[in-house]
Design a protein that fits this description.
Elements: E1 3-5, E2 13-15, E3 18-21, E4 27-30, E5 40-46, H1 53-67, E6 71-77, H2 83-90, E7 93-96, H3 102-109, E8 117-120, H4 133-140, E9 145-155, H5 162-180, E10 192-195, H6 196-202, H7 211-221, E11 226-233, H8 243-247, H9 250-266, H10 268-287, E12 295-297, E13 300-302, H11 304-330, H12 336-344, H13 347-375, H14 385-427
Parallel strand pairs: 5-6, 5-8, 6-7, 9-11
Antiparallel strand pairs: 1-2, 3-4, 4-7, 8-10, 9-10, 12-13
Helix pairs in contact: 1-2, 1-4, 5-9, 7-9, 9-10, 10-11, 11-14, 13-14
């Protein structure tokens, strides 16, 4: 057994049984009494947590013993203090990685996770890992994603800033539930569990704080069998300063913003699909009846200007709907949306329909062209029948061309997502 030293400056020296050097400056350090064939992997990013890391590892070991399960503790470490040495001495595996963000830490860890189940959290002893048995029980019951909830459990006085407790977490949880039709009570709880297979299938993209929202969102997209368990949230250990406070007053606001961004991007169809369809129908209702000329109802006359409002609504609504369909396909991990939309918009039928609509649109514009050629020297601003017909024709031209381009993009997205899904399944 020899000393193994990392080449980076300010890096501690370790006494371990084994080391494995991976690509991209990642190094796995294995403790002397490493467990074999763990069923559960406790995977924890850590940055300069020397005040709490040893106690945290002991909490994890107590929790594993209480749950009656064989588990490993994997610390993804990018510290410059004694955190990795203390973690190793306490019995945890340590994955030394450059400082690249919380989301990236979990992505770096995936190849080194040996357990069937994964439990995530923080190394600061704010979540009591001595009480991990409820997560193990839910896994054994067949749940694939187990979310901790401080609202179902308890929050120690002073453990959470009031802004987070009474505004940030409740509001963002409410927004996510509205967007995704879910019923989570605490989407920002740091203690959560997932099967390794589901974690691989998620193909995490986030590098920073938004990884937490991405995991929740993709658990919904994947249709994972999900449960919530109550957890305790404790105050920071005396002398420890939270990472948000270390980063400055803007850090919580930045984290909130990037989490909202993840919610909106992964749930973009919420803003596009149904609202776009409604706007499209309203636009057609406003446009088509005026194709033959102005209509007077009581003291109101609906004419060319109303048609232009209708055209605008129809085009915006149609494009929103089409983009919402593509967004659903892009984030369709189960294949349901892809099959549904391909059945509704099969290639040949959609292209033929686009051609017919395009031809009708051009035909509708012909009378205006003929009228203009014969009367261009004495045209007035008064709306004529051919004007309304031409506006409808131009609208149909836009619809036909958009349907054609949408069909191409939809089928391209379906091919790309089908190939991506197959690659993820092979990797898992």
């Amino acid at each position: 057994m020899g000393a193994i030293s990392d080449s980076r400056p300010d890096s501690p020296t370790f006494d371990v049984n084994t080391t494995a050097k991976a690509a991209d400056d990642i190094e796995l350090l294995v403790p002397k009494d490493d467990v074999q064939s763990p069923e559960l992997s406790i995977v924890i990013p850590a940055l300069n947590e020397q005040l709490t890391i040893a106690e945290f590892v002991r909490w994890c070991q107590a929790g594993l013993h209480e749950a009656g399960i064989v588990g490993e503790i994997l610390i993804i470490d990018s510290s410059t203090d004694e955190t990795p040495r203390l973690a190793l001495e306490a019995g945890a595996r340590v994955l030394r990685a450059p400082k690249r963000g919380l989301g990236r830490a979990y992505k770096d860890a995936i190849p080194f996770i040996r357990g069937t189940y994964v439990l995530m959290g923080d190394a600061d002893c704010t979540y009591d890992f001595r009480e991990l048995k409820p997560f193990v029980d839910r896994f054994h019951e067949g749940y694939e994603y187990v979310m901790g909830s401080r609202w179902r459990g308890s929050i120690e006085p002073g453990a959470m800033p009031k802004l987070h407790q009474y505004l940030g977490t409740p509001v963002t949880t409410w927004i996510l539930n509205r967007l995704y039709g879910s019923d989570f009570t605490d989407i920002h709880c740091g203690m959560r569990g997932i099967t390794r297979e589901a974690l691989v299938c998620m193909d995490l993209d986030s590098e920073s704080w938004e990884y937490a929202s991405e995991i929740v969102l993709k658990s919904v997209h994947l249709g994972l069998r999900t449960a919530e368990v109550p957890v305790q949230f404790l105050k920071d250990t005396g002398g420890r300063v939270s990472h948000h406070k270390r980063a400055g007053w803007r850090s919580p606001w930045s984290a909130a913003w990037i989490n909202l961004r993840a919610m909106f991007v992964y749930g973009s169809d919420f803003f596009l699909l149904k609202p776009g369809l409604v706007l499209f129908v309203l636009g057609l209702v406003c446009t088509l009846p005026l194709s033959g000329g102005p209509i007077t109802i009581g003291h109101l006359t609906f004419s060319l200007y109303w048609m232009l409002v209708g055209v605008t609504a129809t085009v915006v609504g149609m494009q929103s709907f089409f983009l919402g369909v593509v967004a659903q396909v892009l984030f369709d991990y189960q294949g349901r949306a892809r099959r549904r939309w391909l059945a509704l918009f099969p290639y040949t039928r959609s292209v033929v329909a686009a051609g017919v609509i395009l031809a009708l649109g051009i035909a509708g514009a012909v009378p205006l062209i003929v009228y203009y050629i014969g009367h261009h020297e004495r045209l007035s601003l008064a709306a004529q029948t051919q004007d309304g017909l031409a506006v409808t024709g131009l609208l149909l031209t836009v619809i036909g061309a958009s349907l054609f381009t949408f069909t191409l993009v939809l089928h391209a997205a379906a091919i790309a997502t089908r190939r991506s899904s197959a690659s993820i399944q092979r990797a898992s």
